[in-house]
Amino acid sequence: MTESSPSIGTYVGIFVALILLTVATVGVAFVDLGVLNVVVALTIAVSKALLVALYFMHLRYSGSLNWLFAAAGVLWLVFLVGLTLSDVATRSWLQATGLSQF
Amino acid sequence: MRSSDAAVAHQFDDAVQQAEAARLGMWTFLLTEILFFGGLFTGYVVYRLSYPEAFAAGSHHLDVVLGGINTAVLIASSLTMAFAVYAAERLRRRGVMLFLTLTILLGSTFLGIKWVEYAHKFEENLVPGASFVSPEGASSHVELFFSFYFAMTGLHALHMIVGIGILAILLAAAFRRRDGKLNANAVEMTGLYWHFVDIVWIFLFPLLYLIGRHG
Question: A51, A67, A59, A45: which is closest to A4 by C-alpha?
């Protein structure tokens, strides 16, 4: 299977976008958005990661099997963080019921 | 446009299948790496939620300027790596050598800046252990933040060192190949690894350096 490859221009464009997003994330960090600070920071980080994965790592130009592998990695990371947080972040609930003695 | 590799191993039908197998193999390895770093990220999330002020205090002692420069340096190294792969696909030996060299230089710059940052931490008594001194007004949990800082950036730096080593091997191989038969697949696989290490830093930078920077 032959795949197309991004052009030099595309690579440079992605690079510029990544630098701009980096400047943005630093800039936004110095503005008080309360809880949104973390949300914005992670959103920008995920966007940068997507740009690197899709274009630099050629995922956009790859077959579905490559996509499956990449998605699987993310999926298991979501399980790891998600299930851990479902335990840790809800421990105060148990203490409130008085059942934490068990 | 894809080049064929110099040799096709006997278990593959053709060069294209061999290249695809290598690509899937590298992605599988990167999956394990996602979970490898993922464990540290999970620990970080748990303890940042537990001690938000201590983590913010610790973060303020990191140099945003150096961290930001390092982020730009690493992104640039991903660009030069992509150019190296582009040149390898087209069997342009000189292009490959040039961009591999630039990638190595940028990666080394990153490590140099990290070295400077680590040295500062030693001077400021912010290295976890017997010599750790909690900064004024901060709780003892700041040491936990720095444990995560050193563990995560240290593991990342280790990956950078290995990556630079592999790039050097590729560079030497390209240098010796005057017949023009470059192993483009090897350059591409190394590129995947290098971009992944860049992605890890893309998350490390805001999570470590940019906590509670406002106000």
Answer: A59
Token pair 């190394």 is found at B190
Residues of B in Cβ contact (< 8 Å) with A89: 49
Span B172-199, mean pLDDT?
Answer: 89
Helix ranges, B61-177 (H): 64-89, 93-123, 142-176
In chain A, residues with a C-beta closer than 8 Å to the C-beta of B215 are: 32
Interchain proximity B31–A25, CB inside 8 Å: no
Summarize pLDDT for A55-78 with one digit per residue, the tens: 999 999 888 889 999 999 999 999
Q: Does the pLDDT of residue B79 top 70, yes or no?
A: yes
Are B44 and A80 contacting, i.e. CB atoms less than 8 angstroms apart? no
Q: Which of B146, B186, B162 is nearest to B36 (CA)?
A: B162
pTM for the full model?
0.91
Q: Which are the contacts of B124, defined by CB distance < 8 A and separation ≥ 6?
A: B61
